[in-house]
Amino acid sequence: MAPSDDLVYMAKLAEQAERYDEMVEAMNSVAKLDEGLTKEERNLLSVGYKNLIGAKRAAMRIIGSIELKEETKGKESHVRQTAEYRRKVEAEMDKICCDVINIIDKYLIPHSSGAESSVFYYKMKGDYYRYLAEFKTGTEKIETASKTAQTDLTPTDPIRLGLALNISVFYCEIMNSPDKACQLAKNAFDEAVAELPSLSEENYKDSTLIMQLLRDNLALWNSDMADDADDIRERTYTTGAKGDPAAVCSRTQCSPIDILIHSPSH
């Protein structure tokens, strides 16, 4: 019996008992065996963390609503207590998110066995960056990290591309700024495409996978903005309002991306 078998069994047992902290602990131990994860093991890890963070996010929504009500009532002592409790839950969320990102960066991506698992890990990592962004005012830190990556890393470096992916999703989903998200994603993609001839074989798989994710997001966001523009146009025709609804799309230079990324010939 492989060392991971007992741990996987315990993870499944913990899942049935809805003890997700123990489920995550077991799957983290599997990840640290440095053997890579099977599809089943990846899903177990994801489910465990998703339930852990889901409970914290639900608690944050409830606490935030209560805090707002207490502020409206003018009960300062209750506001202070609620804010302190919120910060406690935020710290717990922060630890969960940082643990996930650390496991992915240190153990999972380096031992990824193929395209499917790599994409799974990058998407999962992006999810937990977004959960962090829900309660952290991290725009300045994010932009500083981006500038550092642009200075120190090549456009095709998977770390730089991964950061661009996470930042663009942050601006689209958290900051509600699809224009800026498109601009960031398109710039990162175009710069990487220009440097593809010099991309090392070592980084080829990870870099091109993230480029595909950037391209997929661009297509999705452009489609969403086009739909929004159509909705505005319909309302404009109905109400007789003035203005050009197409400006919603024209504010950004996000044209459809049709470039195909080919495998290296060497």
TrEMBL record:
Which Pfam families does this entry report, sorted A to Z? 14-3-3
Protein name in UniProt: 14-3-3 domain-containing protein
Q: Which family does it belong to?
A: Belongs to the 14-3-3 family.
Function summary: Is associated with a DNA binding complex that binds to the G box, a well-characterized cis-acting DNA regulatory element found in plant genes.
Q: Where is this site: Interaction with phosphoserine on interacting protein?
A: 57, 130
Indicate the segments forming the 14-3-3 domain, all copies: 4-234
Q: What is the lineage of its organism?
A: Eukaryota, Viridiplantae, Streptophyta, Embryophyta, Tracheophyta
User: Origin organism of this chain?
Assistant: Oryza barthii
Show the InterPro entries listed in the entry.
14-3-3 (IPR000308), 14-3-3_dom_sf (IPR036815), 14-3-3_domain (IPR023410)
